[in-house]
Protein: Macrophage-capping protein
Organism: Poecilia mexicana
Amino acid sequence: MRALLSGLALIQSGFRCFLQLRVASEGRALAHHRVSQEIFGECVCVCVLEFVCLRTCFSSHCCVSLPVLCSVVFGPSSVFPLQGEKSSRDEQVACAMLATQLDNFLGGDPVQHRQVQGFESPEFMELFPRGVSYKEGGVESGFRQSQGSGTVQRLYQIKGKRNIRAKEVELTWSSFNKGDCFILDLGETILSWTGSQANIFEKQKVREIASLIRDTDRHGKARVVDTSEGEEPEEMLKVLGPMPPLAESTSEEDSKADASNSASLYKVSDATGAMTTTKVSEKSPFAKELLVRDDCFILDNGANGKIFVWKGHGANIEEKNAALQMADNFIEQMKYPRMKTQVEILPQGKETIIFKQFFKNWN
């Protein structure tokens, strides 16, 4: 894979990219591309910046980060298109095209996570061990100081009463509070932590999500450890450090979480010659059988700033290539704030835990 990619040249419609990769000591190969707008007539050129240990992006540009991970050890690869808050529409389109080209070259297997400056996901920040800084009028972002190794270390917050959801949060005690449940995923060990003020629904959900991670991401080869506030095991303290006093929780926070956790499912089709969306379910949890392999679907969690596009194996190439455009059109149609809404594009079989939790009995 690395030998092929190191000499890859992508040339299409005036966009040129030379993809250069270098293997870091932990076994990761990482390429970082700055998509810069240079107008020569009507040609938009794509400039490339090789990335290994750098941590600077540009607020007036778009970036595409491609971590090429060993499929045996680290799981599937991902593509992270990043839009600077001052990037132009042309640059955003160029960034989307490059991400689609990279996705196609890798056989449609990568999961695409579109990022927006200031609203980056924890998955994206994992790529920058020393944090990210934005220049040319950008803002400093020290969201995550991630470990550089391939060891799994993720923290999920479980929150709500009626619409209970997990979301990945910063790996620090400051993310915790007494009123919620959390999952610390350490790979071989999955720690399920319950706050002293957590409600019964969160307590049930945290066990479900921990088991889902074990059974689907680890193929049953991990142990789930249940723990409660005040009984933190050594494994947990080793990663997070000594536990400071935790924030209290209020019922209003659960009500807000319920509203933002709501989701709907839409089917996408081009059978009429134009891309159309049809709502197939108005309320989660959805039946997994609604995801038909010959189509693409949009899972709308826009109230929480997230849109998922699921690509079935049998969907036609036009639908798959238009996935990001589908999401953009949907965001505009629903009047969601475009620069605050993350988009995740998931090929069938590469679904994330955050996506799976919206469905009944995914196993």
